[in-house]
## 1
Amino acid sequence: MNRYIRIKTLFIAFIIICLSGCGGGGSEQSPTTDNQSQQTNQANNNNSNNPSDDNNIDPESNNDDLSDNDDADQTPTLSDTTFSSQAKVSRFLQQATFGPTPTLLSELENKSASEWYLSQLKVSPSLILPSVEAQAPSDPEEDFNLFYIEQTSFAFWRNSIGAPDQLRQRAAFALSEILVVSNGGGEVLTDVPEAVAAYQDILINNAFGNYRTLLERVTYSPAMGHYLTYMGSEKGNDETGRMPDENYARELLQLFTLGVVALNKDGSEQLDSKGNTIELYDNSDITGLARVFTGLNLNEDDPEEFLGKRFSVPMAVFSDSHSEKEKSFLGHTIAAGTDAQTSITQALDLIFDHQNLAPFVTKQLIQRLITSNPSPDYVQRVVTAFESGNFTLPDGREVGANQRGDLSATFAAILFDQEARDPNQQTGGKIREPILRFTQWARAFELTNITPEFVPQLWDTSASADLAQHPYRSPSVFNFFRPGYKAPGSVTAANGLVSPELQITNASSIPGYINFMTYFITGQQQEADLEELKEEFDEIGTDLNFDQALLSFKPNYDRLLSVANDPTALIDQLNLLLCANQLSDQTQQSIKQVIGSIGEDEEDGFLDRVHLSILMVMSSPDYLVQK
């Protein structure tokens, strides 16, 4: 029997066993009451000063506003037990990186998580734009090819799976799902990969910097300017009725900074005397703010310059196109006649200092890394770190530049919070995003050749038949899923809980994910028709390295094969590496019941058993819900 068919048949048997064992349906935890005490790392020095503004920003340069507290000048004063077991290391790395590796589990056990965090802040950024520029054709209009425009995807897969700056890469990906730019549609962002590559690098370079600085660099980004249509926005004309483009002004407030209703420091909605939510602004505010972003367009210092190059540097200001009218929004007014750069600086300062920004942004970052339903106390503790720009790590050392909006302090507060570290205090965790499931598999089994260019399946994974998600390719500015999404008819929704990732989970994406993972887990990419792939490469004038293609994304299962004769030992390894020892007894028994029927093959030993075990674990509810 064909190996693929055999594994699929046994996998179906596993599903049947699971369903019969739980009465035909799964169960979900009810929300728990969280009476956690306030952590002792409440930061002081609530300094709201903004970092210096620089509108001539090189998106390739590393401009992090890292902590003024030099690690070399600080001595640990407390014992950090965050990594006191390999299971705890595994769980932390599932939240803070694109997935743990067996090597890291061994190296970090009983080491200081505080030290690991501080060391990650210092690792040089792994960027995207250099990969794109290295593949840019000499004449893009004549030599346009898919291999070139997919370089943003190739570089993302390489960095997320193999780059040493894992914390930075993971933080940047979380930020990308708030400050959304997508090359999933629209000719320019699809066909000029430098645009999205430069934008990715803005997020990577500033992942540990200041959110105010990040907002400015995003605002001047050509990718964002084109995506939200304010690139080339002209001042209004009373005679013709022309109005400034309002798209960015609206999404800047609604999605990137404040939301739409007033929030308390703990992320809960403020209510008026009648019990209604309080709207922050109306369309007149959007109209006033839209005037701020007029006059921005591609830098034309050299109009003959390759378009991709002009999309990789900040937009320039064209004063003649900028509105000279006063700009009123959120109860503030920028005076008439104020120039574009000053208007943008004042507008971003006003928005950044708004009380809604910290709870609105930090709650979403918690959702992306830790749990879909953080308690109000958890949100408020992270807001404190964001606003003070300081956080005390478990070993007593401090991180952050003591400026409002410091992201190095914010991410530390998210990851080291008591609610993040104790799974028993969470209200259900979060669904693992499909992208993160794939990268976790790739890192868990230490791929020997991360060359996505040789695997067409990775060129676009956005279809439901694949992962239903592709990096930087969301269907809209609202990301792949909304932070407040409640799955209709679900137990979580009935309990008032949100489950954002379920918005891309449906009858097509579930089998699509299983088929996609089966393809990689069983090594079918090594058995692909290389002649057909060679024809694709020939069409774009690129040589196909057969040796590399045969080894591309080849997993290392040696550790599993060494214990595969013992189903219990095999599942124990997978439970630790993939689930931080959170597989239920029922799930473990169900998997063992199926894999125990797979005997040793004369040629491949217990390889089929290993393949099926990985697929079963990574398709189980215990794995799909990260706790």
Note: The beta strands are 296-297, 316-317, 327-329, 332-334, 391-392, 398-399, 430-431, 625-626.
## 2
Amino acid sequence: MELNHFSHPHPLLLVEDKSDQVREAYCSGCRELIQDSSYRCTDCKFFLHKACAELPGELDHPFHSQHPLVLYDKPQYDSPCVAFICSCCRKQKGEGFVYHCSTCKFDLDIQCALLPKLIVGDFPKLKHFSHQHSLLFIEKHCIESADQSCFACEDPISGPIYCCFDCRVFLHKKCTELPLVINHPSHRKHSLTLGPNPPPFSHSKHSLTLVPSPPPSSHSKHSLALLANYPHEKGCSCHLCSKLQKGFVYYCSPCEFSISIKYIFSDLFEAKIHEHPFTLLSRPMSFICDACGICGEYCMPYICTICNLVVHKDCISLPHTIKLRKHEHSIFHVYNFLKENEVRKRICRICRKDVSMEYGSYHCLDCDDYFVHVNCARDKDLWDNEIFEEEVNQKSSETLGEGKIKHFSHDHKLLPSDELKNCEYDCDGCRRSISTAFYHCAECNYFLHKCCAELPRKKKHWNAERVRTLNFKPIFGCYFCGFYCSGFCYVNDDDRAPIICIGCFEIPDYFTDHGHEHPLFFDHKFTRECSNCNEKKGKFRCEDNCEFVLCRRCIALPETAWYKHDGYKHDEHPLALTYYDDVHDSYQWFCDICEEPRDPKKWFYYCATCDYSCHSPCALGKYPYVKLGSPAKFVTHEHPLTFMKDNLRYHKCSKCGKSCKDAFLKCVESECKYVVHYLCQ
């Protein structure tokens, strides 16, 4: 049985027998492993699950009731990384089918679009007091993203849920079944009513009353003071917590008393970070938490009378051990208070601020100088939940003797060489000029830096959740720097996550001497305008807080560049990345390529020998790391395609019909007239 599918130019043949399937084949629709009947194109090695091939072209989906969703074979966004974020599970997908609403920019991946019991039949709805719209009940879901939390308790979404995807509201089923009225020992005068935070009363009419603190002997490091009806943080109404809480609270309007539901039913006082149990002191206090060093005002503390410790409720459940992505060892919570003869300065390896040794912190026992604030370590986005044991055999090349190697990226043997000819060659792995020892192929024009040839096949990035595998691609968009590239990249095994080129993969999260006098570090919660290019994507910030910020693209700019494209040429000397121009004559602040003015405070490329200067985008071009003219096989066409740039002759794209005025892929067969934009293929 054959099928003509919109996602592939050739007819697809239905294969029912599992034994006839190609081993380790992945569906181009859902990117999952083929394990049952499927449609396939033998010539192109293109596969589709039978269910994915029979998906409806339009879908009226309960998650997006305003407009129908249209099925596409790739993301509908014009960007180098060619990715989208599913509006349901919030996972970023690089390839595969997507249901898309162009009006609302709403996307659903295949797994979320076909959640059980949502496409056919009725599904339960709930009208809840906390939300204006009806909530859909989902018994089984694929929402595992860290940024999706329950609107009531703020815990991650798990188990059966009620949801409103239009408003991004989620509720655990158990949270929708909370009793509306309860009696609680923390407030014996009246019953407490369930409601959203903040509760329907204000603290503004209450005066501030400070009760004298107990004598210092009762707690050597803390001044415990009882406050009267004063919220410890603006916008927070919970009398038990130590920080701003959202979600639901139980409250008493006459007494203006409220407690977050996260603590209302909790009777577990055993701490993970301490050997003794803690006791709840049922009166609001002002104190400094021994576990995290953060001030707690007008909240009920937990105390250990044996060790004379006072902690927040949240700190009782702190994990004793945490594994961070950016550090090779586990870190442990410690109460190692500063000794009198110890004066070393300690810096948090996440926020780069001082760590006070008078209170608890996380410390690496293998690295004596590695400390992390407790509140910084709480961020689960930085946790490493995957155990990575690098295998001995996971090397990218095989040694053959006499210095020769067989690399996974090339069909022929590679020979060692240190003969450099004025940077005549570019490495096929990283696409940078070769200026150190390298390997080359005696049969074809293929070169690799020695360091690129020895890259590990498996590696983990400091800002990535999963282990990645070294791969070779003829052309791809790097998610980190945004450049189009050829050669080596690190990808997830299922090839669904954004691709990172090896140059960006080696960029550390903390470094010095990059156009700024102070060290820079990566802050994943921070985004501000880049100090160099003015893009609002700067995440590398100055350690000394002098407002200097760099984006990932500027961080990835090479120290030197050879300009030899677009009809111009300056290849006698390399162009050096220069961070500022101290020339006082403004008539020299022009780009020698585009002849437009330059900002002397912005980075540029410069040749001191020739007095040749240019904007960094002009020096690098749009495709600085793409190998032109090299044929490569793509699943969308039966013949090899080559990446080309032709500013003199315009071709028509075989997919969209528009002119190829920039770069395009062209069939190497002279009789075949197939030409396509890269984003269209």
Note: The radius of gyration is 30 Å.
## 3
Amino acid sequence: MGEEMEGEKRRDHGLLDNKRIGGLRTMPFIFANETAEKLAVVGFSTNMVSYLTQQLHMPLTKAATTLTNFSGTASLTPLLGAFLADAFVGRFWTIFIASLFYQIGMTSLTISAVFPQFRPPPCNPAGHQEACQEAASWQLAVLYVSLLLNAVGAGGIRPCVVAFGADQFDESNPKERTRTWNFFNWYYFCMGSSMLVAVTVIVYVQDNIGWGWGLGIPTAAMAVSAASFAAGYKMYRRLEPAGSPFTRLAQVVVAAVRKRKVAAIDDPRILYENDEMDKAISLSGKLVHTKQLSFFDKAAIVTKSDGVKEGSSATAASRTPNPWRLSTVHRVEELKSVIRMGPIWVAGILVITAAAQQGTFALQQARTMDRRLSPSSTFQIPPGSMSVFTMLAMLVTISLYDRALIPLARRFTGLDRGLSFLQRMGIGFAISIAATFIAGFIEIRRKHIAAEAGLLDLPTTTLPISVFWLVPQYALFGMTEAFTSIGYLEFFYDQAPESMRSTATALFWLVISLGSYVSTMLVTLVHKYSAGPGGSNWLADNINKGKLEYFYWLITLLQALNLVYYMVCAKYYTFKPVQIREEEEHRVVELNNKV
């Protein structure tokens, strides 16, 4: 009875009021929230090391550890936030409550940056680091609590905003379904624009005007976005949570294991179905049987001990069965969908590993190069600001993708969306390979100039080679993100069970987290096993004497193998088959999702 009531509530929000709620008019409120979150986290994290070392007088290693812990935590909390949204709270309230946590954390950081009592006294006039007093324990506690609140806020916003935005378009309506595909491009464009402002304007304010203003601006933006997001409450299509998705997946596994000795069946039509039982978790339509992973079909085989008539349909069932003993076809296919997504999900880790080098070794390359805008200019581009070229390339690619590539691709693929999300991700993988391959040759060119100038032994001396030689690799990584990241968001949202889309979207952030950890592991291994006599190393402290190009090409090789793996996975991937209920026409249309 409880699931039936939940199902009716979800229908009240999701179907009966389609003409009055959801749609494009909700986008400004949703995008404002995501824009403010990115403005806050990127604006702070990009320059965080400067704040910790210069304002709180942390040692560099401690500051780097603090930054790593914050980034890792903020990439893992989306799993918890997504679970709460799908199982108990719902996406709207998860986003709103998370925004409040974020607001409190950012306000705390801003207060600590404005009032000197929250920071150690300035260093002596000589400015020697050893003469600086490190922040007291209670001052560090304020920092850590603030960062924890921000990580909790990110955990609620990141996985839910994209799923909540896509929820505003009715999948049973062909016109709105097309808008759902466009939504992911709009979402990423807004996110990229916000990040671009953060790494330029906000960082400039922090360095040249003050940290009070530098943190206060994104704090104020977060307050405005939270208020505007709440103001759109009555306009949103809000899908109520349908209980823990992990519990349902576990029930299918347990039921299948219990019936492991039951003979398999050849006719899937006699597997158990119960539309009333699944109503709360299949708003748009139910999943239909697929042949893969047939072991789990045993969970839907009716036996005498299940308490329902063997071979009965949903409407013929005398009572709701124990879900730990008997599952419906829809619930079995939910588990199959999650398992089938796994191999595609794993393929994205190496792409993130490759992109992570732009914030480490590419930054070191930039630091050794001529960063003037022109030979006569006195202004030098900060090494960290080279990521602007990645973001610009990403934004341009997204714009061209919508305006030019989709219409062109339609002629060849016949798909309304131009390219399927699997094709889009594959293109991104290929571009990432080109990025690291080219990066190796640019590094050879940089070291050749250093050798000609006799500066190999002087790693801190600026070389007579323009930093703009690095633009191609930065731009290619921006193009990679436009194809791969958006493709992944589309993939997770489209192929995940409807009742756990926030959880599936959180997997996108988990890929980013794991990709960063794999990068750390790869750097550690290469540094250890490439060490030679006389202190030689591929990743030497003096990159002029290292073999950084070998490292880039190693990543290129790994990515090439990964692309082959991905192509095999994509070729044999089975799309989630759905029967979509079209309420207004009182008929059921089966879609096979071959996109």
Note: Residues 352 and 512 are 6 Å apart (CA to CA).
## 4
Amino acid sequence: MGNAAPFRLHCSILGPLEVRVDDRTAIIGAPKQRLLLAILLCHANAVIPSDQLIDALWGERPPRTARKNLQVYVSGLRKIFGCRLSFEGWGYRLYADPAELDLLRFLDLARSGRAAVRAGDLAVAAELLAEAVRMWHDPPLAEFCHVPLVAKEITRSTDLFLSVYEDWVELEIELSRHVEALASLDALAPRFPSRERIAAARMTALYRCGRTSEALSHFEVLRRHLAAEMGLDPSPVLRNLYQEILKGDGRRPVGAAGHPAATRTRPIQSLANQLPRDIADFVGREHEVRRIVGEAAAVTLITGEPGIGKTALAVHVAHMLASGFPDGALVVGLRRHGGDPRATVDLQREILEAVGLNVAAVHDDDVLASVWRSWLANRKILLILDDSPDESSVRTLLPGTTASKVLVTSRSRLSGLESVTRVGLAQLSPAEGIEFLGRLIGHERVLGDLPAVRAIFERFGLSPLVLRLLGGRLAGLRHVPVGHLADRLEHSESVLDEFVAGETCLRDRFEECYNQPSWTHRPAFLALGALAGPPFSHDELVAALDGTGRSAELAIESLLEANILSVPQPAANGAEVVAQSMAYTMSPLAHRFATELRGDHRV
């Protein structure tokens, strides 16, 4: 292209609008400038009249300065697109080729795939059409769907996608990959209930998977929908397919499950959304949520001390992301009740069996891992690997491709785990603590005794678990003032036993961690119990940890790695912490537990 500028450009409109220049995202913040770009990209390589652009940007009553403002927006876009964006005398044209715009690449792949079908090369055709289908990220340009000029192109692009998708999914079934096709059809068919080719493909795939009753049921769902919405009957082609399935004339399912070591015991199922319920009173973590949701990284590691809210955050974010993972969302607990680690091969086997793969005859761990990776390949799954005990357990379960997303939670920082986005959780802020406690026991009750509430925060910390247990106690003791409970906690000889709500007990959580045979931090943890209480100076820690089996400096690093110790947040004035003033802190209640253990006869 003669007008091409000497930089790499890639634009995406088959989903959210995105522009990347030399692999960096270009920031286009002004709403009308973004809308102008969306229109130009939808009509790439065509001239859009200025009057039409003005009408799209400002509607029927544009300001007097509309044409001048349009020129300003174009001038801003030229800083990104250079001579690709030109004025043609009566309108504007944005030049792009298939390597620069996903819509054009999509159309090229569709043409090549259909040409391969005509040439009889079905395997190549399926591969090309599959690549085109994977480019689609519904809904396209959702932020502009209210603009008629864009909405028209969204409808046109969606129809193009559905046509290509139907070609691809029918090819997959023809190539006996009906199991894989069905997972995609299960997600798409309910969203486009009037598309008869999609309905026919799903009926065929269900039948070939041995699910005849579901295939017939899908026909009935379609028939009722067409009658209610359009007053129509299914087409003769679909009615004939229904009769063939009813008579058992169709081809039965054949083949293995995609890996030579695995056999299929029943049709492979989608995991679907198996997330536990989101916590309705989730408070705070706005920065962490934005970071996890906005990150393109395939693996995010969430770490922090016990009770800091790692799992709650992972589940909360997973509910926000789940719609983008049509092959399912799942929480995998990496520890048994009581805290013992679960073998990753057992977890792999459990999940593979759950989706219909018989791996009972697979006894080699490496082969099982290969089956696991093969099953995950080309699937979009959202996995939460919860409470990971070590780095190796995470590595074994990670997908080999980046189509899926994994959220890992761990008490340890897992510093040796490579290529992950790290999110470390600190305690809630006092304002977040007040909001959280208010949701649990009522805001009037909290605001009516703020000095007592703040005293509790100062003495016992602001971890979500501590606040939830405290709120659970107070919610069941509506007649007890917050100040009364604060005094009781201050003078309690066994304050850990006060943090109990229902079947959840803070002491049990601490003991579960401490009693693990693999827990290597006992000597150092007990040494912390001899100190007066956090925060600790560096010199205090060095003196206390000397003689615990390793050098004091290494012991401090080990406690930081395990999130037993943490470094206080920087001062508000942003002053750097120098070596002479290095300080460390820990959960006040974890320190109380260490003090108790040190004086206990069991130590």
Note: Residues 166 and 197 are 6 Å apart (CA to CA).
